[in-house]
Design goal:
homodimer; about 350 residues; alpha/beta; elongated
């Protein structure tokens, strides 16, 4: 299927080497639309962009890339949205450097929903991953689409939580929308394409180049009303997203942790700089003046087996071994082992090295 | 030895039942000094305080209490300081309700030093106690006398840290200055009397009545430039001290923790209300514009035995058992056991139930 003439012009212009946001927006302002830009003479173009870029515009053919885009758009759920489209996310128009063109895979309408960015470390702790997923689910149920960057660790957990809730999740990519990076998130990317969305400003086929990710971060924060950092080391890339969020006038939120945990340092630095300390998803919903989601029955509150409940109670907040727990509960070793296995399967506790068990908080 | 006439008058007035701060300060303003108050007629007194209090002033003898005070003052290191004395702590004059009279045991001059209140839960965690003691020591070495309330838990650890540093520590009591409460802190109280100070506004012999402690808290914050809360549950009494500190215009500081730790809830509530998040003693010294103490060689950085250093490194921030650690280090079981014992004696690690070891952060 051939592309509509105007969309072809948008794509062609977006593929001109060396023509980036600023220059492109200047040309659109001067000439009105991409077709008129492409029809302009080199002299006319040179009034607004450098001579090299003007030449590149006139030399641009991009026929192969255009054919690729046309083929990609044939697949169900794939979209290209331009600055001129009504579907272009309004919040991105508020940022200083909105992309001319967005490739979107999945539910386009999600880009217009109230959203929250949830980001953090790739090397997260087990508790950090649980926090990211459970907070994200509560945001999603509270009406906020969860935006993140499809990285391993906190990003992936945030997407999973968002998908599990009512308002789903959007991943903003540092690659072309036809590429999954990192490969370990392939299944998650398929889930997002089916029930959420993936979005990229980069041409199809763009590989994961390091400088794409910081640039991509402005769209993660730009799509959202605010940005929550779950776990971040002092030099974490998620602090870039938080800084961009603040510069874009978005609220910045951070979850604190032990002063001895390297993965809390970034969050603490943000709080010192004015980010809001967050202990629960409700803290964020309240700050954004959204009603908290109707309280779900929390799994923690609904252990049916009173022996399992007693075991959780004696476990408390410190690691404990099976023998000690059995003695504290007055249960046999066999009963205790069975209950611990069930609690572990239910993700209520985690096994630590050395035969210890640690309670997990959801 | 007989008391000086003017001190006897101060003590006598301070012992009148029902005559508290406000009334006493009104009378002093009206009559000039305690001797003139005691010489005034009931009619004259009734112009400033209620009839019952005026009668109580005239009926007051307090001879036995005066004799007790005289005997107490005979002991070396014991002092009574009145509002009229040059030694009365200047910062207490800034608060709305300074006591007329202070009983001080120990180094009176410490009350005039720059000071920081360090308070927190009686039921603290092992890491909370370590934090309190190591922060307090750094404050003390940085020139801040550490003020706290001689309670179990964080208070006691703060006093110990203050005593270990250069600027010592002051305990403000909710009992008479001749009583140690709780009894388990007897040895600490003796240390404070010898190398720091104990201070009370309550008459000698006053038992630990529950309502004395919140009232006492205004003096803990009042003596200090700021107040650091180390660990506090959501309903902790140390939040009263922090609130009073804020009302008195003192800086409030709090150490964050896991959002799943009940003992971090009080600190997080304070940070949400505007308290400064603190990750290190340097954060506080910097905020108060005091030069940080010359960096001491931190014990963590100076493990001499390279095998012990390697063991600490592989232990990381999670609990680990001896077998796993031995395998990671390539050490024999016997070597590992010996190193773990030494590290435990050096308080570099703590043994957990189930044969696990956890690194301690100083």
């Amino acid at each position: 299927m051939a592309l509509a003439t105007d969309l072809a012009a948008w794509l062609k212009l977006s593929l001109v080497p060396g023509l980036h946001g600023d220059g492109l927006r200047k040309l659109l302002a001067a000439f009105g639309d991409p077709e008129r830009v492409l029809a302009a003479s080199r002299t006319e173009l040179s009034r607004h962009v450098g001579a090299a870029t003007a030449a590149a515009i006139q030399d641009s053919r991009g026929d192969a890339a255009l054919a690729d885009a046309a083929a990609w758009l044939e697949e169900p759920g794939n979209h290209v949205v331009t600055l001129a489209d009504a579907a272009y996310p309004r919040r991105l128009l508020e940022i200083p450097d909105p992309p001319a063109l967005l490739y979107v895979k999945g539910r386009l309408e999600l880009l217009a929903h109230p959203a929250l960015a949830v980001v953090g470390s790739r090397q997260a702790t087990a508790q950090g991953l649980i926090n990211a997923e459970s907070f994200a689910r509560a945001f999603s149920d509270g009406g906020l689409t969860v935006v993140s960057g499809l990285a391993l660790g906190i990003d992936a957990a945030a997407h999973r939580g968002g998908l599990a809730g009512a308002a789903s999740s959007v991943a903003v990519l540092g690659t072309g929308a036809d590429i999954v990076y990192p490969a370990r998130n392939r299944e998650l990317a398929h889930e997002l394409a089916a029930r959420g969305a993936l979005m990229s400003e980069f041409p199809l086929g763009t590989r994961p180049l390091p400088d794409h990710f910081p640039r991509r971060n402005r769209l993660i924060s730009g799509l959202a009303l605010g940005c929550l950092v779950v776990e971040a080391a002092a030099d974490s890339g998620s602090l870039i997203t938080a800084r961009l969020a603040a510069e874009q006038g978005r609220e910045v939120f951070a979850i604190p942790g032990s002063i001895h945990s390297p993965l809390a340092k970034g969050c603490h630095a943000l709080i010192k700089q004015g980010a809001k300390l967050v202990e629960s998803a409700g803290d964020v919903l309240e700050e954004l003046r959204l009603p908290a989601a109707a309280a779900r029955a929390r799994p923690e509150d609904t252990v049916n087996d009173p022996r399992a409940a007693a075991l959780l109670a004696v476990l408390g907040h410190d690691p404990g071994d099976a023998d000690t727990l059995a003695a504290r509960c007055g249960l046999s070793a066999a009963e205790t082992a069975a209950l611990l296995t069930q609690l572990e399967l239910d993700s209520r506790i985690a096994a630590l090295p050395g035969g210890l068990f640690q309670r997990l908080h959801r």
